[in-house]
Design a protein that fits this description.
single chain; alpha/beta; 2 domains; 16 helices; elongated
Length: 319
């Protein structure tokens, strides 16, 4: 059994389905879309399942869902669309008040719920407040900060567990990623399949990892600024990945310093050369730089701030 299925089978949500106590509106949250989609798939299967050990994966309803041809399970928007538009919201509401075609219930899966603007969320609100009989709404979101409090209050909020590295590895191999690249991506993906796929398909990923490891191990003196800034200025298109990898290493180093056992030589080296306070402030500073990058601040200035920050924390919070 893969970890996505195991996470769902062991969840309170599945228990409530078996006891016919499930809320009619759920908000699933995870930074990993792969984990979200899989949890939602098993949730839908369990709701429709005709077997005893839900979801059985063998009954006619489960098989329809696995093959994407259950007419009473509707997805909005289509998988490649970013968010719902007004016409789709209207269509969803109209469909919600029509009877099921084959089963005794209808299910609506709303992807990228955090990407729906406030006016569209308000349009959906009344349907969530007073859902038709035997109609379920499952909202998927990578974060919840853009979702209206009124929407959240009508939904049962479910934090979807991270999936195992073994399952992520199998997905990478299924996508044609070679063993070596998969191993490196798994090291830095923080159990996020979307992130692992992004890294594994980036031809510059190994170069980005090497840059981060070099910075954390060897960048110690102000006279090195010119050399490291010149290197990073050339990596404009890869800077977000570099920061993500940098944060991943720092987070694991903090975990090591806090007593967690982690088999990671890079994180161990960082833990030996940075204090906890230094690493915590590096993480805070990197998050600030990410926001500046989103606002299209001058890239060279962001790089300089990044390098100064590394030197500053070494000095301000020594071992």
């Amino acid at each position: 059994m893969n970890s996505s299925l195991q996470n769902f089978k062991e969840s309170p949500v599945n228990k409530d389905i078996k006891q016919n106590k499930l809320s009619h509106s759920l908000l699933l949250i995870s930074p990993d879309n792969y984990a979200l989609e899989n949890y939602a798939k098993y949730l839908v299967m369990s709701l429709m399942c005709l077997g005893i050990d839900k979801p059985c994966g063998e009954c006619s309803e489960c098989k329809k869902i696995l093959h994407g041809n259950n007419v009473d399970v509707l997805y909005y928007p289509q998988k490649d669309a970013k968010s719902l538009n007004s016409a789709e919201i209207s269509d969803l509401i109209d469909n919600a008040f029509s009877a099921p075609y084959e089963a005794d219930k209808k299910i609506f899966v709303i992807r990228n719920a955090n990407g729906i603007d406030a006016s569209m969320q308000n349009k959906l609100l009344k349907t969530l407040e007073e859902p038709p009989h035997n109609t379920y709404f499952i909202l998927l979101a990578t974060m919840d900060n853009n979702i209206l409090p009124t929407i959240k209050s009508r939904c049962r909020i479910v934090r979807v567990p991270a999936i195992s590295l073994d399952e992520i590895k199998q997905e990478l191999i299924h996508k044609g990623v070679d063993e070596g690249t998969a191993k490196l991506a798994l090291k830095y993906c923080d159990n996020n399949c979307d992130l692992a796929l992004k890294y594994a398909t980036n031809p510059n990923f190994a170069q980005n990892v090497a840059m981060v490891e070099d910075l954390l191990k060897n960048f110690r003196k102000s006279w090195q600024m010119l050399d490291y800034s010149a290197k990073l200025y050339k990596l404009n298109e890869n800077f977000e990945d570099i920061i993500e990898i940098f944060l991943s290493v720092c987070s694991r180093a903090v975990a090591l310093l806090c007593g967690k056992k982690i088999d990671d030589n890079v994180a161990r080296n960082v833990a030996e050369n940075f204090s906890v306070d230094a690493l915590v402030n590096l993480v805070k500073g990197c998050n600030t730089l990410i926001e500046k990058r989103k606002r299209n601040c001058n890239y060279n200035s962001i790089v300089d701030s990044f390098l100064f920050m590394i030197l500053e924390v070494r000095h301000k919070w020594p071992i």
